[in-house]
Design a protein that fits this description.
alpha/beta; five-stranded mixed beta sheet; 11 helices; 10 strands
Length: about 300
């Protein structure tokens, strides 16, 4: 890859419209026109975007997507070290948010290369704002696993999450996902399905998960973002030692290390980590020294 000699360059992460091209941030056009290298998730979509903006790229355009991210990252870092201004864009929204970008950012930071951003539209924040659910605290969970068993496991892992949760989902899996959420979170848990945000056929469907699952069974099309209300605060006093141990076990079974699982359960319950740790140790000792009732930790 050609590089620009001189001082170390700059990596620019640029947000692109999630639907309406008029939402493109003003700086995006200037960066696209002047960057030495434009790394795009889909070069054809980039071409359509530049045409819609009425501009032309002058730098080299290369593809940067999930399939070549690992191989292309060193090439882009080399260009940055040579002084190039590298602009990274994805199909829609901000790079690195469930899109390519994390590897390049990490590699650039490791080499002390400047990383900056052109803020732009975000499906996560747009869906949150439109959901009518609490947004003072939220977490982004991205795409759930495709396999039913793994999907249920992930949902059980966040079943006690009290923050509003945001998920991405493919339209052909939405009905199964909402049904699984209804099973794990409860059919009455409030949620919002945001479809085709900022596009011509934008739709926000709000309601209990059970009702949304029935609605989605008829078939839904377009880009989907799902916002789900967090779990109700049950109060730390209602969580006995057995329940604390159970929650730690659920997280461990989902792949978390015990230390992280204990910290997460303590934070969610509003308890000191030591209290959860003591409950886990007591359960482990009881399982080792007495008759097993299937509730202890190994």
């Amino acid at each position: 890859m050609d590089v620009v000699t001189g001082t170390t360059g700059t990596l620019v992460l640029a947000g692109t419209p999630i639907g309406d091209v008029a939402d493109a941030p003003p700086r995006l056009a200037a960066e696209l026109e002047t960057a030495d290298v434009v790394a795009a998730e889909d070069t054809r979509r980039l071409r359509r975007l530049t045409q819609a903006l009425g501009i032309h790229t002058t730098g080299r355009v290369v593809s940067y997507f999930e399939g070549n991210e690992s191989a292309r990252t060193p090439e882009l870092v080399e260009a940055l070290l040579g002084g190039a201004r590298v602009l990274l864009v994805t199909d829609a929204g901000m790079p690195s948010v469930s899109d390519p970008g994390y590897r390049l950012v990490a590699a650039a930071v490791e080499k002390n290369i400047k990383v900056t951003a052109v803020p732009g539209p975000s499906a996560v924040l747009t869906a949150l704002a439109l959901s009518a659910l609490p947004v003072d605290r939220f977490c982004f969970e991205g795409f759930l696993p495709r396999k039913a068993g793994e999907r249920l496991g992930k949902l059980r892992e966040v079943a006690d999450e009290r923050r509003t949760m945001v998920f991405f989902e493919a339209p052909h899996r939405l009905d199964d996902t909402l049904a699984a959420m209804s099973e794990v979170f409860g059919a009455d848990r409030r949620a919002a399905v945001c479809r085709e945000l900022t596009k011509t056929y934008e739709e926000v469907k709000r309601g209990p998960l059970g009702e949304l699952a029935v609605w989605a069974a008829e078939g839904v099309r377009g880009e989907i973002t799902v916002v789900v209300e967090g779990a109700a605060d049950s109060g730390a006093e209602e969580l006995d030692a057995e329940e604390l141990v159970r929650r730690v076990q659920v997280r461990e079974e989902a792949g978390e290390r015990r230390k992280e699982a204990i910290a997460a359960v303590a934070a969610a319950a509003g308890l000191p980590k030591r209290e959860v740790f003591d409950a886990v140790v007591a359960a482990k000792n009881a399982a080792r020294n007495g008759p097993s009732d299937g509730k202890g930790l190994s």
